[in-house]
Amino acid sequence: MIADRVQGEFIRAAKRVLRPWRRRTRPYALLLLYHRIARDANDPWRLCVTPENFRAHLEVLRRHCELVPLGEVPARLGAPRPARRPPVAITFDDGYVDNLRNALPVLREFAAPATVFLATHWIGQDRGFWWDRLAKAVLASPRLPAAIDVGARTSAFRWRRAPAGVPERRQRARLHRDLWRHLQALPGGEREELLTRLEGIFCVASEADPDARPMRPDEVRELHASGLVNIGAHARTHRPLPSLDEAEQAAEICGSREDVRVLTGVVPDAFAYPHGEVAPASPRLVERAGFALACSTVEELAWPGRDPFLLPRVTAYDWDAPRFERWLRAVWLG
Hints:
334 residues, alpha/beta, TIM Barrel, 2 domains, six-stranded parallel β-sheet, two-stranded parallel ribbon, 11 helices, 12 strands, globular
């Protein structure tokens, strides 16, 4: 184990040393991943970037990079030499309504293209994404029960409150993490059943924050009609593909492609893996479904020769302009 960790650290260090040299000699692209452009005090996964900081990010990117549609990335990687201004593609996962309300005006200001990947089962569901409802129940409710003992058709979850002296905030954070892991891979019906019971235990309403809900079909169409935003597919239910057999994966992948076609009138060419998780068969299933490329969440630059169905993406967090620029230049573009 120690030898493996040492070897892993050596490989990561070597990549950090070699990356600037590679950037000077080979074409590359940076794919940025966002989720929400919003303010939300209850944001355990750091999904939110404020509109002000998102605008600052685009100002920095405009100075140092060329903002390109995601679909152009494979061709850019086939160029004979590195571009003077490296190409950067902006992407969003899930399909939050603030992508339309808050992100689109900023994208228009900078004429910046973007791709929004929809978890299509959730489009039009006013109760919100399950992970947001879970966070609201566990982290934001006034009541922390002494015990939880809940079960769905094929799963059970049990938890007991820690003895006095363990801070409640720490207990809630750990409970939230354990419940998220438990609910993540459950079939939709079982997850909804369990989540509804949890909301009852924590005495919270199941209605979503109207500013944090998934888009409705008409809002997806409005975003698509902007001409700046390409709508991609993010599977149907957002279950991690490695938890599914190949037939279930194919249903999630092909189903979301058809859902996007119905919503927009255009067959999507890009797919993003839910949670960034990829099973061995997933890339070929995505290719077989008719997509041209697919994105993971491996934090690396995209280099020539990269499998177009395993394109890496780098998450952008809620940083102001100076910090975002330091991060961008030191780690990815310097």
